[in-house]
Design brief:
Distance between the termini: 32 Å
Radius of gyration: 21 Å
Shape: globular
Number of helices: 13
Structural class: alpha/beta
Number of strands: 13
Oligomer: single chain
Strand content: 15-25%
Length: 385
């Protein structure tokens, strides 16, 4: 793993840290997606150090603006946040967190496919992204596809170009993992294309916490329901609340997080000096500096909590957009353990080894919570294909 450059702040998790994905999913630590390439279809990306420093970025392509490059910039565009976070959640090596917040597929190669223009994404643009992928996946060695995007309207397979392309991708050997969506609390809550394609792995979400008698689960408000073909979605659940993800370099949020984390370990005198210098930029409450170092420390903690900052360069995020790449990273581990697995075998193993949430409706949880250890064990012993 590449080391992060020396800084004047810690890269360790702070006082508002969340559990790393590897702890929550309890996977096999010796597997890291080595030899597997994952393609991410998303709104935009940056060359984040957790991906770029290790040389695992195989390709970047902006479907609607092919002249666009993945060059570092002083400040990331707003539409680059989502894709950067989903790809790092799955495949980041955690170089900016001393390895703590690395993805399960931290050795996998990565292909980044930007969909739409400036964050505006429609169904036909998702279709063009799939078309580009189908033209190039063999050349790039892609085995897994993560799609944390949704189309415009529900439609049967014969009327949905996006779902037809997703089905073609699976037919040609790609394991396609799609976020279910976050409409579980709405009147219309059926997953939209490509999450409604029959052969893709549609991922909903859960929240989990530790108790004296073990781990407890709660359902996230994932989209759910039967597709026009009668297929129940989602098939699986993965963490969708308090998932550690990167804060983009060069942004005001990045600078704020660094300063707040520095302040958590500063002595009283330095702490007050930093608070006076950065008072307005950090949004600390009026009167905190005059009240003394204890008041400033309390205000800093509250600000970390409000901004969901878990370490100098990471925050926690919510949504099935982040549950899906966790499953994609488990798939990469399965293919590392057994490269002969077909997409149907991968999906079947994941569903057969999942853990149901007791008392939760079947239509909302599918086969239940992804169980990485059992899935990988089954993958290792599965016959070829």
């Amino acid at each position: 793993m590449n080391e992060a450059p020396a800084t004047d702040h810690t890269h360790a998790p702070g006082p508002t840290a969340v559990a790393p994905t590897a702890v929550r999913v309890e996977t096999h630590e010796e597997l890291s997606g080595r030899g597997v390439t994952i393609a991410f279809l998303d709104s935009g990306f940056t060359p984040h150090p957790d991906l770029a420093r290790s040389g695992r970025l195989v390709a970047f392509h902006a479907v609607e603006e092919p002249e666009t490059t993945l060059a570092p910039s002083d400040e990331a565009r707003p539409w680059a946040w989502h894709g950067t976070q989903t790809s790092v959640v799955a495949a980041g090596d955690g170089s900016l967190s001393d390895g703590v917040y690395r993805g399960l597929a931290w050795s996998a190669r990565v292909v980044l496919v930007q969909v739409g223009r400036e964050g505006s994404i429609h169904e036909e643009e998702i279709g063009r992204a799939f078309e580009w992928l189908l033209e190039n996946f063999e050349r790039l060695g892609v085995r897994v596809v993560n799609v944390s995007l949704g189309g415009d309207v529900e439609a049967p397979l014969e009327a949905s170009r996006v779902n037809q392309l997703a089905e073609e991708a699976v037919r040609r050997g790609l394991v396609v993992v799609v976020a279910a969506g976050n409409a579980g609390g709405a009147e219309v809550h059926v997953p939209l294309p490509p999450a409604s394609a029959p052969s893709v792995i549609t991922v909903g979400g859960y929240h989990d916490w530790r108790q004296d008698d073990g781990r407890s689960f709660a359902l996230y408000l994932s989209s759910f329901g039967h597709t026009p073909e009668g297929v129940p979605k989602p098939e699986l659940l993965a963490p969708a609340i308090e998932v550690a993800a990167p804060i983009l370099e060069g942004t005001p949020e990045f600078r704020m997080a660094e300063m707040l984390v520095r302040m958590t370990t500063a002595g009283d005198e330095d702490l007050l000096a930093m608070a006076r210098e950065t008072f307005e930029g950090l949004g600390l409450p009026a009167g905190a500096v005059e009240a003394g170092p204890d008041a400033v420390r309390g205000a800093v903690f509250e600000r970390l909590r409000e901004k969901k900052i878990v370490a100098a360069h990471y925050q926690h995020v919510d949504g099935t957009s982040f549950a899906a790449p966790i499953v994609a990273s488990v798939v990469a581990q399965m293919l590392e353990a057994n490269p002969t697995l077909s997409p149907a075998a991968v999906k079947g193993i994941l569903m057969a080894t999942a853990e149901r949430i007791e008392g939760a409706p079947a239509e909302r949880q599918g086969h239940g919570v992804v169980d990485a250890r059992r899935a990988i064990a089954a993958a290792r012993t599965a016959p070829p294909g």
